[in-house]
Structure formats: structure tokens, C-alpha cells
Design a protein that fits this description.
InterPro entries: Falgellar_hook_FlgE_sf (IPR037058), Flag_bb_rod_N (IPR001444), Flagellar_FlgE/F/G (IPR020013), Flg_bb/hook_C_dom (IPR010930), FlgE/F/G-like (IPR037925), FlgE_D2 (IPR011491), LlgE_F_G-like_D1 (IPR053967). A flexible structure which links the flagellar filament to the drive apparatus in the basal body. Its main location: other. It is a single chain. α1 runs antiparallel to α2. The chain has three domains: 104 residues, no CATH class; 139 residues, no CATH class; 139 residues, Flagellar hook protein FlgE (Tick-borne Encephalitis virus Glycoprotein, domain 1). The chain is mainly beta. 13% of the residues lie in helices and 35% in strands. A hairpin with a 5-residue loop joins β17 and β18. It contains two helices and 31 strands. The longest helix has 33 residues.
């Protein structure tokens, strides 16, 4: 009997050492929850025994209890690194169905999230984080369990509009000696984009198509008139090319020209320049342009075409609302992080990767948002570390080692006693 009792002590000490070693091995695992081996003593009796003389039969492990006290936080500066200040678990989905709905949910305190290859918020194991659907202003649309879904982060957003208005503010030279390769005023040869002697200057101009993609466009400027005694104004003509093709003037009888007076100010008698016949029409404003005794320069250029705005910033507030900024002004909510709590967290089943599954002992999960129903607040840019105290574990490891040695000594003593009995001679 004493041998069996000592053996149970050896096994218990080994299990204690294994539990402690597991804690020490995960001292740097984010959000790892340390465990504690718990033991009970063994007594085996029968109805004829006197309880006052029954000797215990050793010990065995009753359970490995997970400790859910909070670990320390470390700042990372990464928006998608999240830590829960208080109770709660993140919900992640190892598997999704064809409609991107979770078929399995596990729970973790490890908030090391990132964007995966599909621009979905997921943890380091590729499991999508689940969140509540929200309106653009962050209002939660539904908090039913069936509404939980992964969070997709579009890299672009916004509406598109093709360019049909241009605004060009230029400085045109007054002297003929600053006209590039234009050979005369007006040029000797008809305008030809391939003949630099038929125009003075050319500049690219910004444009976008119906999909918001940049379109190659170029404007050409031709000095067509110098001042004389009868008329002291100076005249320039503009030609517009889009995608390598010239866009004709909207009115063939009214060329796309703009005129400067003797002081170099724009004479606004023609209004905006109109291009296009039967297709896409373009209106080009040259308001603010001037003529000076200086080389040609493009002072400013704008157009009304818009394309999808790129993701410029991503942030998560204390309440778990995920905000995406597109461009400088367009801000929209993408979802609200879902947390879960349990009536008995120690009843959760460990699955590795600092994760847990609901079990009968844990009770059913109660899902809600950060800061609600007793759940903790989120801190973005932070990660929760392991709650293992290395000093405490090392001391416990030494204690378990002593226990093992003591039980081994008890077994050795039992063996010696048995050997003594075997050596008795009749």
C-alpha cells in the first residue's frame, strides 16, 4: 500500500511540474492564461473499517484550473492590436460557410489582429474577428448572435465622376522670343501635335474616366495674334488631346481662344472654352491667367473628376467601433467589435493558441460590445501579455521538485522495507 501511495505522490508531483513548465514556456505568449494543478487526497474504505484507523491512499489530480486574472499591457502602436481592459473575450471564427457566416466560434484574449490577404481583420492564425454590423455613423444595426460577421476593410471607397471641367491658370509670355519652337505668329504651318513649330507650348492636364482611372490628356497653346495699331490685344488658342485623340472645339466657328489686353489681363469676352462634339464634352476655364514678359508657366490646375479614395487611416475607439478614413474627409464605420463573457470562464475548454471553446461547464456565451453588460473597454495599439509571474513559477517549480524527491524517498523506503521482509530467513 505504501508503495502505491508514494507512486501517486510521484505522479502528482510530475503533473504539477508539467503544469508549471507549461506556464513558464508560455511566459511570452500574448494573452496566455496560466494554469494551476489542483489535487485531492484519496481514501478507500469498506463498511467494516474504523474511520479512525484508515490511512490515506495518496492523491490524484482533480483538474487543471485556468487563471483568468489580467496580464500586463504593452504598447505596440499598431491600430489593430487590441487589449481588453476588464473581462471579456474576442470572438474569432476558424471556419466560415459559403455566405461568410461563422460555422464555429472560439474565444481569445489575444488581440493581435491584422489585415489578411483578403483585406479582412483576422488574427495571426488567419481566423477572422467577428463584429456587429453598423451604419456609416457607427450606430449598431443588430446585436443578435446571427448578425456576427467578419469585418472587411475596403482599400478604396467613394463614388467616381469622369472629368468634364478643367481649370487652368497660366502665365503666358508677351514676347515672341519665349514661344518655344513656334516659328511665327500665327504659325506658318497648320497645327500638328507632332510639329513643334506649329505651337508654342504643351502641358499635360489631369483627367479621369468613368472608373476614376487617370486618363492621358494634353493641352497645346498656340500664339495666334500679336497686338497692332488697330487692336492692342494678344490672342492664344488652345487645343485639347485626350487619350491621344484631339477633341475638337464645340463650336467650329468659334475657336477655343483666349485674349489678353495691353496690360496682360484676360479679356473675358468668350467665357469658358468648350470642347467636344457628340461625345464627352469638356469645359476649360482659364480664369486667373495673365500675360507677362516672362516665360510660360502653369500656375495651377484643377479638374472635377474624382476616383475612389484610398484608405488613409484605420482606428478603433474604446467602444470597439472600427473607423476607416478615405482621403481626408470621408470617414465611415465598418463594424463594432464583439466581445463575449461566460458565467464560469474556468469551465471553458482550452484549444491551444491562447483560445477557448464554450463547454457545458462554462455556460453559453453572452455576446455584447465593449463597455456593455459588464464587459471591458478596448485599448487600441496595445497587447495583453501572459499573466504568468515567472518568479512565482520558478519558486513553485522548486517546491514541486522537492515534493517529487520526497515521494521518491518514500518509495525508496517502502522498497527497503519490502527487501528486509524478503531477507528474513526461517
Amino acid at each position: 500500500m505504501s508503495m502505491t501511495t508514494a507512486l501517486s505522490g510521484l505522479i502528482a508531483a510530475q503533473q504539477d511540474i508539467s503544469t508549471t513548465s507549461h506556464n513558464i514556456a508560455n511566459v511570452n505568449t500574448n494573452a496566455f492564461r496560466k494554469s494551476r494543478a489542483e489535487f485531492v487526497d484519496d481514501y478507500y474504505t469498506n463498511p467494516m473499517d474504523s474511520f479512525q484507523t484508515v490511512v490515506g491512499s495518496g492523491t490524484h489530480m482533480s483538474r487543471v484550473a485556468v487563471q483568468f486574472d489580467q496580464g500586463n499591457f504593452v504598447a505596440t502602436g499598431q491600430t489593430l492590436d487590441l487589449a481588453i481592459q476588464g473581462p471579456g473575450f474576442f470572438t474569432v471564427a476558424p471556419q466560415l460557410d459559403v455566405n461568410d457566416q461563422p460555422t464555429e466560434v472560439v474565444y481569445t484574449r489575444n488581440g493581435g489582429f491584422r489585415l489578411d490577404s483578403t483585406n479582412r481583420i483576422a488574427d495571426s492564425s488567419g481566423r477572422p474577428m467577428l463584429a456587429w454590423p453598423v451604419a456609416n455613423d457607427g450606430t449598431v444595426l443588430s446585436m443578435e448572435d446571427g448578425a456576427l460577421a467578419p469585418v472587411d476593410v475596403p482599400l478604396v471607397a467613394g463614388t467616381t465622376q469622369p472629368t468634364d471641367e478643367l481649370s487652368l491658370q497660366m502665365r503666358m509670355p508677351s514676347g515672341d522670343d519665349m514661344l518655344g519652337q513656334q516659328d511665327a505668329v500665327p504659325p506658318t504651318n497648320p497645327f500638328d501635335a507632332a510639329d513643334p513649330t506649329s505651337f508654342a507650348f504643351s502641358t499635360p492636364v489631369p483627367m479621369s474616366d468613368e472608373q476614376g482611372n487617370a486618363v492621358e490628356a494634353r493641352a497645346y497653346y498656340i500664339k495666334t495674334r500679336n497686338p497692332d495699331v488697330a487692336d492692342e490685344t494678344t490672342e492664344y488658342e488652345m487645343r485639347l488631346f485626350v487619350d491621344g485623340n484631339e477633341v475638337p472645339a464645340a463650336d467650329a466657328l468659334n475657336p477655343t481662344t483666349f485674349t489678353f489686353d495691353v496690360a496682360g489681363e484676360l479679356v473675358d469676352t468668350q467665357g469658358d472654352l468648350e470642347f467636344g462634339v457628340g461625345g464627352v464634352d469638356y469645359t476649360v476655364s482659364v480664369a486667373g491667367s495673365m500675360m507677362q514678359d516672362q516665360p510660360f508657366a502653369m500656375e495651377s490646375v484643377n479638374h472635377n473628376g474624382t476616383g475612389p479614395l484610398g484608405l488613409s487611416n484605420l482606428e478603433i475607439d474604446d467602444g470597439g467601433v472600427i473607423w476607416a478614413n478615405y482621403g481626408t474627409d470621408n470617414r465611415m464605420a465598418l463594424g463594432r467589435v464583439a466581445l463575449a463573457t461566460f458565467s464560469n470562464p474556468q469551465g471553458l475548454r482550452q484549444t491551444g493558441n491562447a483560445s477557448f471553446r464554450a463547454a457545458a461547464d462554462s455556460g453559453q456565451p453572452v455576446h455584447s460590445a465593449p463597455g456593455e453588460k459588464g464587459l471591458g473597454q478596448l485599448q487600441s495599439g496595445m497587447l495583453e501579455r501572459s499573466n504568468v509571474d515567472l518568479t512565482e513559477e520558478l519558486v513553485h517549480l522548486l517546491t514541486a521538485q522537492r515534493n517529487y524527491q520526497a515521494n521518491a524517498k518514500a518509495m525508496e523506503t517502502s522498497s527497503s522495507l519490502m527487501q528486509s521482509v524478503m531477507n528474513i530467513r526461517s
